[in-house]
């Protein structure tokens, strides 16, 4: 791009995110996988185990909320001094899934158990019929299960053998300072999945049951 933008009236910017956390149907989406996997664990009574390499449960990682990513795209497009270059982007923190897993388990109302490598590309398709019953039970929208569970991507991403996070200093120096905790990001996006009726709203169901009791 730098070779062709000399003297051009247009500008460009590029962002290099890691895992993008947001609801979409398609490839490379950990959020949808967590939503479906957690629901399967809840409905079958299975323990909520980290299904990637046990080693990866403890490595450092980052991710980026899709709304934060969008805000950054708008920022770069409206600030000329930040244009015509590429940036890493993340939520601004790093985490270990070992730290986040209890919060995810709490959202679904399931028990955490030690990590166990699961062949997700086999495991998730095996639960397609179960998902159909779950969808009917909770009146979920008929999103294509094969596009929702993201097993291929999840199996690869959750088995990174080493730390995987980016240095975002360059972006901060360009003036974009928005950040968020990744745990809050994941929980807020699970709530969004529930609002979109992609997964059951377990926190709301738990609250309703408590009020009845």
UniProtKB/TrEMBL annotation:
<feature type="domain" description="PRISE-like Rossmann-fold">
    <location>
        <begin position="5"/>
        <end position="142"/>
    </location>
</feature>
<dbReference type="Pfam" id="PF22917">
    <property type="entry name" value="PRISE"/>
</dbReference>
<dbReference type="GO" id="GO:0016627">
    <property type="term" value="F:oxidoreductase activity, acting on the CH-CH group of donors"/>
</dbReference>
<protein>
    <recommendedName>
        <fullName>PRISE-like Rossmann-fold domain-containing protein</fullName>
    </recommendedName>
</protein>
<dbReference type="InterPro" id="IPR055222">
    <property type="entry name" value="PRISE-like_Rossmann-fold"/>
</dbReference>
<dbReference type="InterPro" id="IPR036291">
    <property type="entry name" value="NAD(P)-bd_dom_sf"/>
</dbReference>
